User: Fold this.
Amino acid sequence: MSKPAKAAAEPNFEDALTRLEAIVEAMETEELALETLLARYEEGMKLARHCHEKLNAAELRLKQLEEEAGGALVVKPADEEG
Assistant:
């Protein structure tokens, strides 16, 4: 599979997180067959890895933007604004 086709098949962060939350809820609340549990666990692990990679990429990009701004960019938590 080529990279463009693979990239098009990957969910965005929000969709992946929503699906991961649904998988966790189903595994916690439903009585599922062992095979189904294993399949959901595997899918969940892939989604968790995908989300982690997206967050790492976003953090790296923020650091790059801060460096480009000469370190003048300061990120504050929302409760400290104002």
User: Anything to note?
Assistant: The chain is about 70% helix and 0% strand.
